[in-house]
Automatic annotation (TrEMBL):
Organism: Phoenix dactylifera (Date palm)
Protein name: Cytochrome P450 90D2
Superkingdom of the source species: Eukaryota
Protein family membership: Belongs to the cytochrome P450 family.
Cofactor(s) this protein cannot do without: heme
Membrane topology of the entry: Single-pass membrane protein
Alphabetically ordered keywords of this record: Heme, Iron, Membrane, Metal-binding, Monooxygenase, Oxidoreductase, Transmembrane, Transmembrane helix
GO terms under biological process: brassinosteroid biosynthetic process; brassinosteroid homeostasis; leaf development; petal development; stamen development; sterol metabolic process
SUPFAM superfamilies (UniProt xref): Cytochrome P450 (SSF48264)
Binding-site residues for heme, renumbered to this chain: 431
Transmembrane segments: 6-28
GO CC annotation: membrane
GO MF annotation list: heme binding; iron ion binding; oxidoreductase activity, acting on paired donors, with incorporation or reduction of molecular oxygen, NAD(P)H as one donor, and incorporation of one atom of oxygen
Location in the cell: Membrane
Length: 488
């Protein structure tokens, strides 16, 4: 009994001490947070309705011709940084260029990627869009270095020229061409070859079919609703499994036949790395994620450029003159254009830059705070999400005069490295394929404006869940002159 009494007494004392320590620690944390919030305040705003928050209003505006209207209304009420509740999470929305840049430049000790649960389930935990720390740096670094390599740029230049000319050689005068569909077909083939070394053929067609099903499910799930969306989710999951099986088969063949040959694609680069972290599952998952730009980014960039040029005859004339001059120079030697020559077309690059600013193919990026954060006097609590909304910055009249007007000349001698222009994200997760996107768009535009005139049919932009033209941007083409035998 005495022993039992002693044990009970000691246990009671320990519980009391533990309670006092926990209470003291919580008070200390609260005081620290209160001291911090005296310096940095939680942004003003509203959480909206119970459970759904402001998600329905956000999505409704996103489907409209001016998706930034959700932000504009709240900016007038609360300022450029405000709180909200969207996609099931309390969220700080930033339309401030400096705040957004800070978030993008931060490492995984401060912010980590965040996506709605329905999307993360389809992408997988090993996706480069979700992984953090040293593994993310390794994968991103290897892929980024290869994407910048002269070998890949030369290969993509040759392939893009060949595929574009093969497609355009079949165009007839007064034929209606859907630019969005044409550019998707061409760019998908080029990117898949650069990623996994697959040439056009039966396996390419199978991969394309499965990828379409995957994208249809992926893009239908920003909100998890019953019925058809659940069905699409299942179809997308099955499509991804089929793609993974094909890519893992290609990876295994490459491992079996590896003999120190030149690294011709991204898979070659990753399997040649000695790290045990880069498993076949991780590689195949990330190849699928990197195919997403072929579905959206580059083809939509090309399509929107043609839309804006069709509405701005002076810019189209200037672009045509620049590209015709280059074509005439190359006709003297009969040589093919190289990637450096495409990228040297200054006005063409300004057209692409202005298209990226106005089109906002990536409208914003979401991150989650892993600790309390203070930015420019704004307090972001641990566990909250941050939406850095690029579109509002790119269309800010205080940063860009006549922001809703297509004006490529605004970029002449302008520094694009400023925090007010972030079409490809930023920081450690800056899109590794940004140079290739510009290259492919430059090649398509070059051959279009030097080979054809066109009249655009009426069409309009849809901004959610991804940016695209509703009708695929139909144009009625007419050939200028018979194509020369060289590819310039």
């Amino acid at each position: 009994m005495d022993n039992l009494f002693v044990i009970t007494w000691v246990a009671t004392i320990m519980i009391v001490l533990a309670t006092i320590l926990c209470t003291s620690w919580n008070k200390l944390r609260w005081r620290r947070r209160r001291r911090r919030t005296r310096r940095a305040q939680l942004p003003r705003g509203t959480f909206g309705w119970p459970l759904v928050g402001e998600t329905l209003d956000f999505v409704s505006c996103a489907y409209s011709p001016r998706p930034e209207s959700f932000m504009d209304k709240r900016r007038l009420l609360y300022g450029k940084v405000f709180k909200s509740h969207i996609f099931g999470s309390p969220t700080i929305v930033s339309t401030d260029a400096e705040v957004s840049r800070f978030v993008l430049q931060s490492d995984a000790k401060t912010f980590v990627p965040w996506y709605p649960k329905s999307l993360t389930e389809l992408m997988g935990k090993s996706s480069i869009l979700l992984i953090n720390g040293s593994l993310q740096k390794k994968v991103h670094g290897l892929i980024g270095t290869f994407f910048k390599s002269p070998h890949l740029k030369a290969q993509i230049t040759r392939d893009m020229q060949r595929y574009v000319l093969e497609a355009m050689n079949h165009w007839q005068d007064d034929q209606l061409i859907h630019i969005q569909d044409e550019s998707k077909r061409i760019v998908f083939q080029i990117l898949v070859k650069g990623l996994i070394g697959l040439e056009p053929g039966e396996e390419m067609n199978f991969l394309k079919q499965q990828f379409r099903e995957f994208i249809a499910g992926l893009m239908s799930l920003p909100l998890k609703l019953p019925g058809s969306r659940l069905y699409k989710s299942l179809q997308a999951s099955l499509a991804k499994k089929r793609m993974v099986m094909l890519i893992e088969k290609i990876i295994q063949e490459k491992r079996n036949n590896r003999n120190g040959c030149t690294q011709r694609d991204v898979v070659d680069v990753l399997i040649n790395d000695a790290s045990d972290q880069l498993t076949d599952d991780l590689i195949s998952d990330n190849m699928i994620d990197l195919m997403i730009p072929a579905e959206d980014s580059v083809p939509v960039l090309v399509t929107l450029a043609i839309k804006y040029l069709s509405e701005c005859p002076l810019a189209l004339q200037h672009l045509e003159e620049e590209n015709m001059n280059l074509k005439k120079q190359k006709s003297v030697t009969g040589e093919n254009l190289q990637w450096t020559e495409y990228m040297s077309l200054s006005f063409t690059q300004d057209v692409i830059t202005e298209t990226l600013r106005m089109g906002n193919i990536i409208s914003g990026i979401m991150r989650k705070a892993v600790k309390d954060v203070e930015i420019k006097g704004h307090f972001i609590p641990e566990g909250w999400c941050v939406l850095t909304y690029f579109r509002s910055v790119h269309l800010d009249e205080s940063l860009y005069k006549e922001a809703y007007k297509f004006n490529p000349w605004r970029w002449k001698d302008k520094d694009m490295s400023t925090c007010s222009f972030t079409p490809f994200g930023g920081g450690q997760r800056l899109c590794p394929g940004l140079d290739l996107a510009r290259l492919e768009a430059s090649i398509f535009l070059h051959h279009l404006v030097t080979g054809f005139t066109w009249v655009a049919e009426q069409d309009h932009i849809i901004n959610f869940p991804t940016v695209r033209m509703k009708g695929g941007m139909p144009i009625r083409v007419r050939r200028k002159i018979k194509e020369s035998p060289f590819l310039g």
